[in-house]
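HUMAN: Now follow token order:
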Amino acid sequence: MMLSKLRKISKDLIIYSVLAAEFERLDFKNDALAGVRANYFNAKCSPQAEKTDLDIDGKAHNLAYSMKKGEPLSWKITTGSRPVQTVRRASDNSYCVLSYGDNGVVFKRQYFDAGHLWLRTEYYSRTLENAVAAVIYPRMADGLTVLRMQRFLQTGIESCDLYPSAEKPKKRCAALIYSNSGMIWYDARFKPAQLGETGQEAPEKGFRFTREAFMAESGDDPLSLRSAPYLSEADAAVPEEAAPPESAEPEPGEYSAYDRIESILFEAHKTNKNIFGELASHSMEEEKPEEPEIPEEPEEPEEPEEPKEPEEPDEEPDEPDEEPDEPDDEPDEEPDDESAARAETEPEPDTLIGTKNGDYAYYGALDSDGRRTGRGRTVTPDGLTAYDGDYSADKRHGFGVCYYKEGSPNYAGDWENGDRSGRGVGFRRSDGIMHAGKWAGNKPDGFGARFDRDGNFLDVCTYVDGVRNGKSLSFDEEGNAVVRFWKDGELISEKIISD
């Protein structure tokens, strides 16, 4: 009987708002958005608009909103000059409501479609920008509206399904929704016994995109999309400037993973053009900008005063793309016995480069003026390699690998006049994330892909001057393709493709 009742509720369920106990109090009294959404749907989608003052947890706030059928939500809550909630709209009239913490960092994003129906909620770290903590979204299982909760942990993604209760439980639950059927409590322990282990979900149909599909080892070119048919002649039309330059196929032994990634994303641009529309042609309300979630760039110190002093790697910066006041290559600790022994066995360097932090040893080719030119290796005063690769006139130029001060890799790839320019891989020491792609002026520029410390694919995107611009492709745990559109580092819209 209870299962039948829950199925009947799920059939016409409209979710006004969702709260997850792990991240918020299960109390809607301060959820102004939930109240406005309830009024809108209860009034048969009649327009709602107002500018008013409201009290949230004893603090005065200002609310201005407009909610109409056929238009994306206009929504802003502020306290003083600080934003509390703002909205970001996409060209297809879907939108996202962003909630800010006291420190100005976004801790929650709520996504809605063009009909104002809830799609999902993302929770973020309250201390780190753009660090996803969990995602919760609805799905159907044997006639029931189930909430899928995904937690993003250091060990990976942990998923579980939360099921509705026909009555208010006595024990604390994992989530609570406010809907056209009132408050409904959700928890994993409410799973009906009749659903069995799988939830009796309908068999999957159509294409199923998974990470494994992109790691296939069969076939001559398992990742190529060049033989895939276009949606239509119009869809296949791509401006000539959008196409990457033609190049000959690499000879055996010259395989470039970047070439394969670039090809995949370029074909995705063509085949998906009509699906996602002209995403950049919409206007957005002015709101607080967010820092894009991109790899931290390995930092370069300022040019030394002496013309022959090297540009040696510094500690990883607290913030990306900031130049330090002065280079700091001095080791944190005295060299250990192993370092001392290694120094004793090192051959005589071809030249020594004196700095205020000690003498750097250089082993390699020199030009007639005694400058590092050609292949060589520069070693820090404590015996660790700082850079191993090509030089030109004392600048890193060509291919080379530089290292952080404690010895872990910093960047491997092409250099031009001391800057990371060309194709290369940057390594973020804090979490092991790798960024592989094109670089210019020490920043990602062009197509680039990210991988975790274990080599698992995270996403691929286009970058301009170090920030995301254009489409990115990733996969959720269900194997669905997630296509996001970015503009100047800000997330504009998102599409999930399940088949």
Observations:
- The radius of gyration is 27 Å.
- The chain is about 10% helix and 40% strand.
- The CA atoms of residues 289 and 490 lie 7 Å apart.
- The longest strand covers residues 132-141.
